[in-house]
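dumping this here so i dont lose it
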């Protein structure tokens, strides 16, 4: 792709779009990935392509809940790996938790391809400078991140077909799941199992957004960066009794405010 000048107002958006196009041609994404991305883009446009105030609160709450979790896990699909695989690795390193590739349209080629991409990110991120506020051996923590999903050995109750498959070491045994771009049905099934589900979804009206324990209405790479920064530099914040409905209403209001600004 031709280099987009830094001054281009939609640079980040065009680069993300290209990542999805490249991921598709590499066979890593289902056809519907582009549709999902397009829907996300539309909502991001409406939100002003920024992390809104309510998203910032939800990010903070999610960071606190992940920190308090006994067995957290980060569940990723193809779009998340392609757009924010590095961010997922950094979070998993800080939390000491696994990442599970969990696809709606699962094929062994796609799962293996996405795990390989995450392995590449893991090796790159392990070479990075230690992030501000991290206490410990960064390289060792990053290299210790386990990447699950290749061999499912657990079924999510209440779901039919291959999309119920996951691993016991990851999603099956987790108490708190950070899951960007999740499908509404699966989000509901995870909630029914008594798990705390932290969703990242640009659409505040999606079923996932409405089912989740905490919804971060933000773009996935921005949300990951925000959670990381709170995990590392905001350890005094305690989780609250979160009113997710109120937060979703606030994000709808922020869309309106953005246009009257
Ligand atoms: P639901 O089943 O929850 O009602 P849906 O069927 O409308 O959702 P899916 O296709 O299952 O949607 O998932 C795509 C969701 O992910 C959309 O709601 C879209 O707004 C959101 N999304 C797409 N790209 C991003 C992104 N980069 N960051 C955050 N959210 C995104
Ligand atoms: Mg859906």
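and the seq i came up w/
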């Amino acid at each position: 792709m031709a280099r987009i000048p830094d001054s281009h107002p939609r640079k980040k958006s065009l680069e993300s779009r290209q990542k999805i196009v490249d991921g598709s041609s590499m066979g890593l994404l289902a056809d519907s990935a582009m549709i999902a991305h397009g829907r996300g883009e539309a909502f991001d446009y409406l939100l002003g392509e920024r992390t809104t105030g309510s998203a910032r609160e939800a990010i903070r709450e999610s960071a606190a809940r992940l920190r308090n979790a006994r067995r957290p896990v980060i569940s990723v699909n193809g779009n998340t790996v392609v757009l924010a695989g590095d961010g997922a690795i950094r979070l998993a390193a800080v939390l000491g938790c696994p990442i599970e590739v969990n696809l709606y349209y699962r094929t062994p080629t796609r799962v293996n391809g996405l795990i390989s991409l995450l392995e590449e990110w893991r090796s790159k991120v392990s070479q990075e400078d230690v992030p501000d506020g991290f206490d410990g051996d960064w390289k060792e923590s990053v290299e210790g991140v386990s990447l699950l999903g290749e061999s499912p050995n657990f079924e999510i109750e209440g779901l039919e077909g291959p999309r119920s498959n996951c691993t016991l070491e990851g999603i099956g045994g987790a108490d708190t799941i950070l899951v960007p771009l999740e499908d509404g049905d699966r989000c509901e099934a995870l909630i029914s199992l008594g798990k705390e589900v932290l969703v990242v979804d640009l659409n505040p009206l999606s079923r996932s957004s409405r089912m989740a324990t905490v919804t971060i209405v933000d773009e996935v790479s921005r949300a990951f960066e925000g959670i990381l920064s709170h995990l590392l530099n905001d350890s005094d914040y305690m989780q609250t009794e979160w009113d997710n409905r109120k937060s979703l209403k606030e994000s709808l209001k922020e869309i309106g405010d953005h246009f009257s600004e």
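Strands lie at 72-76, 99-101, 147-148, 154-155, 165-166, 176-180, 196-200, 214-216.
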